[in-house]
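Researcher: We're teaching a course module on how sequence relates to structure. For the next exercise, students receive a sequence and then see the predicted structure as tokens, so they can try to spot secondary structure elements on their own. Here is the exercise chain.
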Amino acid sequence: MRGDADDALTLYNENQEAIDAAYNERGFADEASVSNWAKPYMRLAVVTYGLINGSNDYGVLNLNPKKEITRQEVAVILANYNGYTKA
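Model: And here is the predicted structure for the students to work with:
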């Protein structure tokens, strides 16, 4: 189910406990900097769709939600969306 924002929010709300538990296991150090409105969508992107994995910054896992996204990061998200894996 990769529909619009309402579909995504419905999916999150129906599975919130499991999604939040899987998301929290990853232990993103900068979780608090994710805007409240974006948290359900970010959690879906990480847990349900596997689009975003975060970055390992000197041994610390971060999402960097306030940072501008690079072309390389967009390419990784699109590759993940399309199901590509590393060769």
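Model: If you want an answer key for the exercise: Residues 31 and 63 are 7 Å apart (CA to CA). The chain has a mean pLDDT of 90.
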